[in-house]
From TrEMBL:
NCBIfam families: Arch_glmU
Record-annotated Mannose-1-phosphate guanyltransferase C-terminal domain positions: 267-339
UniProt-listed PANTHER family: N-ACETYLMURAMATE ALPHA-1-PHOSPHATE URIDYLYLTRANSFERASE (PTHR43584:SF8), NUCLEOTIDYL TRANSFERASE (PTHR43584)
Organism, scientific name: Thermogladius calderae (strain DSM 22663 / VKM B-2946 / 1633)
Family note: In the C-terminal section; belongs to the transferase hexapeptide repeat family. In the N-terminal section; belongs to the N-acetylglucosamine-1-phosphate uridyltransferase family.
UniProt name for this protein: Nucleotidyl transferase
Top-rank taxon, per record: Archaea
Catalytic activity: N-acetyl-alpha-D-glucosamine 1-phosphate + UTP + H(+) = UDP-N-acetyl-alpha-D-glucosamine + diphosphate; alpha-D-glucosamine 1-phosphate + acetyl-CoA = N-acetyl-alpha-D-glucosamine 1-phosphate + CoA + H(+)
InterPro entries membership: Bifunctiontional_GlmU_arc-type, GlmU-like, GMPPB_C, NTP_transferase_dom, Nucleotide-diphossugar_trans, Trimer_LpxA-like_sf
Pathway given in the UniProt record: Nucleotide-sugar biosynthesis; UDP-N-acetyl-alpha-D-glucosamine biosynthesis; N-acetyl-alpha-D-glucosamine 1-phosphate from alpha-D-glucosamine 6-phosphate (route II): step 2/2; Nucleotide-sugar biosynthesis; UDP-N-acetyl-alpha-D-glucosamine biosynthesis; UDP-N-acetyl-alpha-D-glucosamine from N-acetyl-alpha-D-glucosamine 1-phosphate: step 1/1
Keywords linked to the UniProt accession: Acyltransferase, Multifunctional enzyme, Nucleotidyltransferase, Transferase
GO biological process annotation, one example: UDP-N-acetylglucosamine biosynthetic process
UniProt xrefs under Gene3D superfamilies: Hexapeptide repeat proteins (2.160.10.10), Spore Coat Polysaccharide Biosynthesis Protein SpsA, Chain A (3.90.550.10)
């Protein structure tokens, strides 16, 4: 069971134009990765249930194109009442003696064999992951060596560095017999409350993922981290496109079909280039760069540790560093994403109504789908630009730009001043 119904509000502007399960990891939707992991379980799986909600039509369209031959049942969560509500909707009609493997829709595993380890564990099981800062997650407290005591949400004290990784194997009957829970303070029915009730009356084994093998894609910069994790598994040079000479390629690099790498381009792997991409002439791709299908990285454009979605145009004289550029974006000549503060402190980003420390010394911009920048636009570290927005030439962007906004230099505003009259 894949829980793919969430809105992904903390990931905006990325999720303004696509649902969270379709965020690309090496140019392939996260949901596609998860389905491949499940397919690798072979005969252990009888049926795949996908719970959809936000932008459900896009998820269903993706499934119809790429997974039509797979045994998949789609369940709609009409009301967004939380993860417990989603699971309970999905297990309707499933026999109580069956086991269900539950995967949160924002989980990326650098080691997919972890899924098999959880699935094959005797009885009920949960995947934990060791992280440096557990304060933003549900922490797993254990009794004995590997038996779950309870999940404690976002504790102020560091009681454990092993957190809930969003993967469970549970008996359906245990879920149903412990479904009587209350709404949480944030107004949702939390599946972790059901898991805690199960753990209080029976054994739930903890499987711990190695450090760096699990990414929770809940915040914009974690899209970069997930792609870095996937790139770390890239081996050798697999070049399916056309490479002109002279071009220099170092390290592990994948170049997809119908892509062109033009003369005097310099590529330092690990780098992933999708299909029908044009790079160069005289471009530079630095380590941990991902360029997705149909995009153009043109003359004297440098990309460093960034994820470029589909059909992005950066034709000339731009720098994209530690950034996410969503589909259909056009960057005018001289557009620069600054990624380092003068004081060299970690970069913060506004997430909903809070300022959150990314923990990254270098973090550029997140540019939403179909946005446009004019020539010589500068974006300061941690800035987000909403989808369909326009930034006029010469503007220095020091604060977030909302969706569907025009930002002109004479406004001297941190954000926008003029809304689009016509909705896109």
């Amino acid at each position: 069971m894949i829980l793919a119904a969430g809105k992904g509000e903390r990931l905006r502007p990325i999720t303004e134009t696509r649902p969270k399960p379709l965020i690309p990891i090496l140019c392939k939707p996260l949901l596609a990765w998860q389905l491949e992991w499940i397919e690798g379980l072979g005969g252990l799986v009888d049926e795949v249930i996908i719970v959809v909600g936000d932008m459900k039509d896009k998820v269903i369209e993706f499934l119809s194109k790429t997974a039509a031959n797979k045994k998949i049942r789609v369940v709609e969560q009409e009301q967004q009442l939380g993860t417990a509500h989603a699971v309970l909707r999905a297990v309707e009609g499933v026999e109580e003696e069956e086991d269900v493997l539950i995967v949160y829709g924002d989980v990326f595993l650098g080691k997919p064999e972890l899924l098999l380890e959880v699935a094959k564990r005797e009885g009920n099981a949960i995947l934990g992951a060791e992280v440096d800062d557990p304060s933003q997650y549900g922490v797993l407290l254990t009794k004995g060596e590997d038996s779950l005591d309870k999940i404690l949400e976002k504790p102020k004290e560091h009681l454990s560095k092993v957190v809930n990784a969003g993967v469970y194997k549970l008996r359906v009957g245990d879920i149903l017999s412990n479904r009587d829970i209350q709404f949480s303070p944030r107004g949702e029915l939390e599946f972790t409350d059901i898991v805690n009730k199960i753990a209080s009356v029976s054994d739930v084994r903890v499987v711990t993922a190695p450090r760096g093998s699990w990414i929770d894609i809940g915040l914009p910069w974690q899209v970069i981290e997930a792609n870095k994790t996937a790139l770390s598994n890239l081996r050798g040079q697999n070049i399916k496109g056309v490479v002109e000479q002279p071009v220099v390629i170092h390290g592990d690099v994948y170049i997809g079909e119908e892509s062109q790498i033009k003369a005097f381009t310099y590529i330092e792997g690990p780098v992933y280039v999708g299909r029908r991409v044009r790079v160069g002439p005289s471009a530079r791709l630095r380590p941990y760069s991902v360029i997705c299908d149909g995009s153009v990285i043109g003359f004297s454009v440098e990309v460093k540790e960034s994820v470029i979605f589909e059909n992005v145009h950066a034709n000339h004289l731009s720098y994209i560093g530690d950034s996410i550029v969503c589909e259909g974006v056009n960057l005018g000549a001289g557009t620069v994403t600054a990624n380092l503060r003068f004081d060299e402190k970690t970069v913060k980003m506004r997430i909903k109504d809070k300022v959150v420390d990314s923990g990254r010394k270098k973090l550029g911009s997140v540019i939403g789908g179909y946005a446009k920048t004019g020539i010589n636009v500068s974006l300061m570290p941690g800035v987000k630009v909403g989808s369909f927005s326009w930034i006029y030439p010469g503007v220095v962007v020091t604060g977030d730009v909302p969706q569907k906004t025009i930002l002109k230099p004479e406004t001297k505003a941190r954000v926008d001043v003029m809304k689009f009259e016509n909705e896109h």
